[in-house]
């Protein structure tokens, strides 16, 4: 049982690191924020309305915390 838990945690950590790397690649101007255009490279179907809903602090951009929250909540699928 303990081995299964360790493997599960390792797999989750790997997926988190992989997702972070993909998110970093999506941030083409490397400013730490994701514009609608940048996000549409990974999420082609994302609309302005969807983007605005993900921008929970209403600053006009998606930051890493908002992206992580959107994926964790299922609002966006995990990046592949």
UniProtKB/TrEMBL annotation:
The keyword Signal applies. One of its GO terms (molecular function) is calcium ion binding. This is EF hand. Keywords: Signal. Residues 42-77 form the EF-hand domain. InterPro entries: EF-hand-dom_pair, EF_Hand_1_Ca_BS, EF_hand_dom. Residues 1-23 form the signal peptide. It holds the Pfam family EF-hand_5.
């Amino acid at each position: 049982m303990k081995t299964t838990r360790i493997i599960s945690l390792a797999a989750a950590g790997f997926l988190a690191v992989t997702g972070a790397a993909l998110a970093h690649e999506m941030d083409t101007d490397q400013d730490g924020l994701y514009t609608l255009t940048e996000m549409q490279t990974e999420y082609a179907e994302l609309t302005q309305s969807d983007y605005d809903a993900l921008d929970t602090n209403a600053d006009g951009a998606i930051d890493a915390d908002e992206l992580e929250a959107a994926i964790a909540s299922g609002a966006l699928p995990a990046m592949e």
